[in-house]
Amino acid sequence: MSFERVAIIGLGLLGGSIGLAVQDYLPGVATTGYDADPATRARARELGLAGTISDTAAEAVSQSDLVIFCVPVGAMAAAAAEVAGSLRPDALVSDVGSSKESVAKALSDALPGAAIIPAHPVAGTEHSGPDAGFASLFRNRWCIITPPEGADPAKVKALSEFWTALGANVELMTAQHHDLVLAVTSHLPHLIAYTIVGTASDLEGVTQGEVIKYSAGGFRDFTRIAASDPTMWRDVFLTNKDAVLEMLQRFSEDLTALQRAIRVGDGDQLFDHFTRTRAIRRSIIELGQDDARPDFGRSDHGGTEP
Amino acid sequence: MSFERVAIIGLGLLGGSIGLAVQDYLPGVATTGYDADPATRARARELGLAGTISDTAAEAVSQSDLVIFCVPVGAMAAAAAEVAGSLRPDALVSDVGSSKESVAKALSDALPGAAIIPAHPVAGTEHSGPDAGFASLFRNRWCIITPPEGADPAKVKALSEFWTALGANVELMTAQHHDLVLAVTSHLPHLIAYTIVGTASDLEGVTQGEVIKYSAGGFRDFTRIAASDPTMWRDVFLTNKDAVLEMLQRFSEDLTALQRAIRVGDGDQLFDHFTRTRAIRRSIIELGQDDARPDFGRSDHGGTEP
């Protein structure tokens, strides 16, 4: 089983990249795109993000055997409601959201009876909108598929093959476990980065000009992920609240311990901690998820992935 | 006035890069290097990090009119004590430490009567040791010089011209202001990165293998600066304690506010904060201190600079 026509609802960085990737890597598969924003639809037509750009979500999905929602996770319920009643009975419904338990619920509530298998391609850049998409975004990145209990194995297989065709490495896990893993590998780092960039911009003793001028001292790296799409990230934190707050609690405890070590001048504790974290960096490079080159191989693909 | 012979005490990333840069960009200037570690001295000879590698610090400085200490800031006092009595009377003493008030005091205590003008080239990578150095490390990076009150203007000018010759943009400020600016642009980001990498490696629900596997979700960027030299960073936090603790306090307050916004579901507060930080990223790119390309132009130079 494979798909004949894919509908992409939401034509930002992820949706646009899927449209371009399907046209490049699955030329036999038709693509239809829709975005709630008329300006984005117009731009998507100019850029050819999909074979057809429909003016309604219902029209976009009506012929499709795979429907992928690529909207912020907080907008999934409304986007799904727009297509209720227009889906092909055999259609598989999926998404690309960064939190999975809440999206699974939003989609199944809005589309009772539909076959729903959520997914999360762990790929992206700090840029957003229809102009940010590119066909190779998913190559050598992970796509996590979270099949609900009782999901049709044939549909899970077809969705896995779809993402593999776009260049992704597919992994299956429960939505709950996905949300825990991403809370630490993606959501907490983004929240920390958003926080420190805000802190640095609110100082009296140091001008914002100085912060920017000397940002190469380390601050710069944080500003990059703190430039990610505000709507997407607001929704991620609100929809993966429990896991994010749990990770945040642990982080705050660890930060307090290092803060105390600095205050009391416990150099050994600092040295031991910094040595341990250095080893983890080595493992990441050995596993090929980063690169010791100055650009950490980012020139090969899309940069930091939300 | 310019320098005829430069002594480099400490042949790690910074000292080795200065030795290579002087040989490339100031071929008329002689270089003598010393490192307390015999293995590092042997490697420095193989790599040609300086024209001469001396077996004692006293011998290295005896003929030099510029002496640059390139050791961890916690080791400055001991390194300076080793050359007391061996300095040329007209020698200028400087350093490359990341905290400046404490280093200025350590050097002047150990070398009473010597002409001392501390400096901090805001340049480096997460790598360390004699093999990590390269001649172009300082090109287009900032070098902050912190002349003490009453410093000889001719010597300040000569030191500025020295760093300009190595490719750096020179800025003058007080040691106290330097320590405040670097606390936010460099020291706090490194402490946060060290913390989150430690937090992520201590989870029960998520394996370290999963953290590494999905690190491209944002976590990866933090591991890079958390791989910086543990000795250097231990000393930075202990010697710039007050400014770091002040910034840490502000960061913790801001983090608590965002944590509360997540807990109570205040999406507007999150959205407003994330929009503001995005604008700061734009300013950094406009000022040329970072780059919107996936590798943020890191391939042009040395990566994240401590």
TrEMBL record, chains A, B:
Enumerate the UniProt keywords alphabetically: Oxidoreductase
- Outline the extent of the Prephenate/arogenate dehydrogenase domain: 4-292
Q: What name is this protein filed under?
A: Prephenate/arogenate dehydrogenase family protein
Task: Report the source organism.
Answer: Novosphingobium aquae
